[in-house]
């Protein structure tokens, strides 16, 4: 998937995080002193969050859809210990592509998962996703919240890694 340059804001040199914007972007081929800078991702990293309406979920087993994750905020209210499974990489990539100027490897979809119940929520991923190799926990305990960071690792065969 290519970047639609007509939908980009030129924030070259600005170092700020803005919802659904690329950060640390620069113009490729710029020379800094005696160093010429070339990079495979000159548009920077996109951190997409909060492109929809916050979601409140009841019940136990849930699949967190790309649109729900794209809301930036999910409040879970399960009635017993529950498993929330993230959507497929294809659906997440499509959602991000449809709500931005384009997606590149390394871009993130971020969502805060709040546990508003008296029961533990366990986060799971489908075959097209994986947790970081050093992930020590995949649960959100009672009254806690965790920021879900989904990093796109492959565009051709959609895949992602979750940092939680």
Annotation keywords:
164 residues; mainly beta; eight-stranded mixed sheet; four-stranded mixed sheet; 14 strands
Describe this structure in words.
Helices cover 9% and strands 37% of the residues. With 164 residues, it is mainly beta. The chain has helices spanning 66-70, 89-98, and strands at residues 21-23, 31-32, 35-36, 45-48, 55-58, 62-64, 73-77, 82-86, 108-115, 121-124, 129-131, 139-140, 145-154, 159-163. Strands 1, 4, 5, 7, 9, 11, 13 and 14 form an eight-stranded mixed β-sheet that branches. Strands 6-8-10-12 form a four-stranded mixed β-sheet. It has a two-stranded antiparallel ribbon with strand order 2-3. It has one domain.
Order of helices and strands: EEEEEEHEEHEEEEEE
Largest sheet: 8 strands, mixed
Count of structural domains? 1
Strand content: 35-45%
Shape: elongated
Give the mean pLDDT. Answer: 84
Question: What's the count of strands?
Answer: 14
SS field, number of helical segments: 2
Q: Which percent bin holds the helix content?
A: under 10%
Cα radius of gyration in angstroms: 17 Å
State the end-to-end CA separation: 26 Å
Oligomer designation: single chain
Alpha-beta content class? mainly beta
Query: Which parts are unreliable, with pLDDT below 50 for 5 consecutive residues or more?
Result: 13-18
Summarize the structure.
This protein has helices at 66-70, 89-98, and strands at residues 21-23, 31-32, 35-36, 45-48, 55-58, 62-64, 73-77, 82-86, 108-115, 121-124, 129-131, 139-140, 145-154, 159-163.
């Amino acid at each position: 998937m290519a970047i639609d340059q007509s939908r980009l804001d030129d924030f070259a040199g600005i170092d700020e995080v803005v919802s659904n914007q690329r950060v640390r972007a620069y113009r490729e081929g710029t020379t800094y002193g005696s160093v010429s800078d070339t990079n495979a991702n000159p548009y920077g990293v996109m951190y997409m969050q909060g492109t929809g309406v916050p979601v409140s979920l009841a019940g136990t087993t849930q699949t967190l859809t790309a649109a729900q994750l794209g809301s930036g905020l999910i409040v879970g209210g399960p009635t017993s210990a529950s498993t929330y499974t993230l959507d497929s990489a294809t659906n997440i990539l499509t959602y991000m592509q449809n709500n931005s100027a384009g997606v590149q490897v390394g871009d993130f979809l971020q969502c805060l998962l709040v546990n508003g119940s008296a029961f533990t929520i366990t986060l799971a991923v489908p075959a097209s996703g994986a947790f970081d190799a050093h992930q020590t926990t995949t649960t959100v305990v009672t009254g806690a919240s965790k920021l879900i960071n989904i990093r796109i690792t492959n565009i051709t065969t959609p895949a992602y890694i979750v940092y939680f």
